[in-house]
Design goal:
- Two copies of one chain form a homodimer.
- Chain A is an alpha+beta fold and 98 residues long.
- Chain A contains five helices and three strands.
- In chain A, strands 1-3-2 form a three-stranded antiparallel sheet.
- In chain A, β2 and β3 form a beta hairpin.
- In chain A, α3 crosses α4.
- At the A-B interface, α1, α2 and α5 of A face α1, α2 and α5 of B.
- The structure holds a DNA duplex (30 and 30 nucleotides).
DNA sequence: TGAACATATGAATAATCGTTCATATGATAT
DNA sequence: ATATCATATGAACGATTATTCATATGTTCA
């Protein structure tokens, strides 16, 4: 029994992770959170996009443990969950910027 | 004039880059190339997938400058084009493996 | 030149996914 | 309780994309 099957499963998970980074709206959301936490409304306003769109994408980010939330009254503040997020984006930027 | 517009364009490019990493077939191809160059046929056999599928995806990888080629007779050998490729994948693995 | 092999390409199909619209849930304050 | 504000959710639509099949291109060798 080889160890290639577990590797295969991990590569599937890895693809799923990169898929999350592969959308400009989600990237912009994460980039917005580089400076610190923001509420859903603040993010929507900053990106000039519908609240619903942002909310849907925040759920994707949260499902993948890339952002976490803090509740305060009516608002929900989102922030990056992990140092990896910044690192992965910065590593990608290195490549894009040659 | 703010510098947010160029950043926006860059984030679009960045999303396109991550999209390339967001497919398990392409990830498996790149992972196969961690050990060194392989021909199209070798990759297809290693992944047990159609030659055509691999060829299509290699073109995506090549268009995005993630792999480069070396011709030798009838075969074309593909290899990773860039250290960033390995680094980005490894960074993602860090996250997936907790 | 023609046969055999390796790789690339184009069209078609099926599946995935982002956005929008409408509405629901949840929280606060009067 | 109810009105208001913030966020979430579900369904539907359109667009993108991975794979397959069939075929084309390109290379070697006899």
């Amino acid at each position: 029994m080889t160890d290639k099957i577990p590797e295969l499963e991990i590569l599937f998970e890895l693809a799923d992770l990169f898929k999350v980074f592969g959308d400009s709206t989600r990237l912009r959301i994460m980039y917005t959170l580089f400076d610190g936490e923001n509420s859903v409304g603040e993010i929507a306003e900053a990106l000039n996009m519908e609240q619903s769109t942002i909310s849907h994408q925040l759920r994707v980010l949260r499902t993948n443990k890339l952002v976490k939330i803090r509740r305060e009254g009516k608002q929900i503040y989102y922030s990056l969950d992990d140092d990896h997020v910044k690192k992965i984006i910065e590593m990608g930027l290195d490549h894009v910027l040659e």
